[in-house]
Amino acid sequence: MPKRSFASDNNAGVHPEIIDALKDANEGHVVAYGDDPFTARAVKTFEKHFGKGIAVFFVFGGTGANVLGLKAITNPYNAVICAETAHINVDECGAPEKFTGCKLLSVRTPDGKLRIEDIKPFLHGVGFEHHVQPRVISVSQATEMGTVYTKKELKTLARFAHDNNMLLHVDGARIANAAVSLNATLKEITVDSGVDVLSFGGAKNGMMYGEAVVFFDKKLATEFKYIRKQGMHLPSKMRFISAQFEALLSGDLWRRSATHANRMARVLATELAKLPQIKVTQPVESNGVFAEIPEKYVPVLQKKYFFYVWNEETSECRFMSSFDTTEDDIRDFVELVRKTVK
Q1: How close are the terminal C-alpha atoms of the chain, in Å?
Q2: For residues 35 and 33, what is the distance between their CA atoms, to the nearest angstrom?
Q3: Dihedral (C-alpha) 273, 275, 277, 281: value to the nearest 10 degrees?
Q4: Which of 261, 286, 267, 305 is nearest to 145 (CA)?
Q5: What is d(CA 146, CA 133) in angstroms, rounded to the nearest whole number?
Q6: CATH code, 253-341
Q7: Topology of domain 16-250, CATH
Q8: 8 Å CB contact between 149 and 141
Q9: What's the pLDDT tens digit per position in 183-212?
Q10: Taking the model in full, what pTM does it have?
Q11: Start-end of CATH 3.90.1150.10 domains in the chain
Q12: What residue ranges of the chain are covered by domains with CATH 3.40.640.10?
């Protein structure tokens, strides 16, 4: 059996309860492209979490959710403001700019979080036809640095966006981890905080594949069914995504899985911090741990436990826990680190 790694929560398998849901969905025939009872029930499950009046669309993956969600609320002369570390800026191969036509305006931040003072300088050209026009503030929740926006921080960003004719988009690939970290409901850190569009992640929290684009104002989604189809993210056998979301959200599976992953990250950070050669560099607020490890030891450790080097200049490494990470995994890895760096 392959050893569990700390490279990414995408590397984990599929939660057994999700597998059971997929098996149940595999019985018989239903109408394709979302006109099926599984999708209807999944949408109602989203409404239970976020309230009525929303529009929910299922897609294959996170990049598609982000790109198509942004496409629906922008014009090609617009700009999207994001953190320099944002997934849309770093890890989507230019897809947001290619498919929306918009320019990404990125901000360097120490912890992956945007603040009002970071955004204000981009508003000086509003109304000037020679400049792109800022239309969206996009934040990741949790961020790529493992940090989490509080409800107050989200409300501040949303208010600023709306006061300046902009919208707030959330890349929620790890939205469950953020909600658990804040001891909040999903609604409290989205609808109640003024978020306009959400990419809701499932794959990083135990699903096999599938994400959702959620519009909290249906008027923003008027043309989205065409955008999704043209964007090649209309699943024909949509029931297999819908059934997963129903299993994830109808009970507390989403919370249980995220709670466990977050707790494992805290355990890992606590153990690594005991080693004088290791420096934990970010607050551990979700399921990511960032730590500087002397460069010469990194390849040795990666031979047995793969993980990513986040910043090659400082030898800062990223370690992600998931729903299936165990304390034995952490104990074995930390013991390897201890023997390697001593």
Answers
A1: 29
A2: 6
A3: -10
A4: 286
A5: 30
A6: 3.90.1150.10
A7: Aspartate Aminotransferase; domain 2 (3.40.640)
A8: yes
A9: 999 999 999 999 999 999 999 999 999 999
A10: 0.96
A11: 253-341
A12: 16-250
